[in-house]
Amino acid sequence: MINYETFDPRKAVTLVDLIAKGTAFCEALGCNHFAYLLLHPPVRNKIRDEIILTNYPDEWVSRYVKRKYRYYDPVALIYKQSRSPFFWGQQESLKHMTKAERAVMHEARAFGLFEGYAIPTAGPEGDFGGLTVCCKDQSDVNGLVSEKEELLQFFSAQFHAAAVGILFSGNDNQPAHLTSREQEVLCWAAEGCSSEATAKHMGLSAPTVNYHISNSCQKLGASNKIQAVALAIKLGYI
């Protein structure tokens, strides 16, 4: 029996917590990955770009963000057109995609993202997005949905509400904003550079680099530099 308390998204305080809840949810269901995409914030709020919260492989997330695959990702496109849950990645669905959309799907398979079930979500203030869970084959997806469809929809709605709450609470309801200097520091960190090496690249002192890293961690709700880099990539900041 699944214990919902272990992955209840309402208990998440930071985005790191929320991603951990999503990962625990996947483990409880026996699926491989999850991804949440916020496409529109609540009324009177702004986001620089779509926000992604996921435990997908970091290399794939980085590629997805940098190459702006959201414009060709059929899952993201369907979120904008429908409020009904849907399957993705199955062979019959590929026939109706454009060449660019099929290319995104085929490339995702190289990272172990084969098939899944996606649930569009919406809030009371015009906010909407979607959450998907990913499995290795169609039988796994179909079996999961037939047994846990209500739980999937319940979790998706609560995950969306929790994400919106964390992203737009405080600071005049604006999401965390990284300065250009903070983004650059995290970019070098993502390349594996130490604070000293980053300082040389940027013409700064190592303590100044560490200051920017500390600020980034605080804004993103990360407990260390590695988490800050991962979140910055997932959120599209770098």
Structural commentary:
This protein has about 240 residues and is an alpha+beta fold. The protein has 10 helices and 5 strands; from the N terminus they run αββααβααββααααα. It has helices at about 15-30, 60-65, 75-80, 90-95, 100-110, 140-170, 180-190, 195-200, 205-220, 225-235; strands at about 35-40, 50-55, 85-90, 115-120, 130-135. Strands 2-1-5-4-3 form a 5-stranded antiparallel sheet. Helix 7 (about 180-190) packs across helix 10. The protein is globular. It starts with 14 loop residues before the first helix and ends with a helix.
* Total of helices: 10
Share of β-strand residues: 5-15%
Task: Summarize the biggest pleated sheet.
Answer: 5 strands, antiparallel
Number of strands: 5
C-alpha end-to-end distance = 40 Å
Pattern of helices and strands: HEEHHEHHEEHHHHH
Strand order of the largest sheet: 2-1-5-4-3
- The coarse silhouette is globular
Mean pLDDT: 88
**What structural category do the secondary elements indicate?**
alpha+beta
Radius of gyration: 18 Å
Helical content band: 40-55%
Low-pLDDT runs of 5+ residues are none
Short description:
With 238 residues, this protein is an alpha+beta fold. Helix content is 50%, strand content 13%. β4 and β5 (128-135) form a beta hairpin.
Question: What attributes does this structure have?
Answer:
238 residues; alpha+beta; 5-stranded antiparallel β-sheet; 50% helix
